[in-house]
Amino acid sequence: MSRGVVGLMILAxxxxxxxxxQVSDRRERMRLGYELSAASAELRRVSxxxxxxxxxxxxxxxxxxxxxxxxxxxxxxxxxxQIRVVPKGSR
Length: 91
What we know:
mainly alpha
């Protein structure tokens, strides 16, 4: 083979390698795009659930609601002489 043919074969091999690399890179970008899209959707879902749970917590821990529930159970506020303060660390 002549030098020209070998040179052309090397050039063709390099161009083929570059083409394969470009296609591979594009495929990887698409895969990462789909992965990012799925992660974004999951983040939106979790954020919405977090918002819903925070709202539910605020409703359930509302002092007025707790007092109404306690009253429905027949509970009453203790008088000051019924309150005992236990120091921290005592048994």
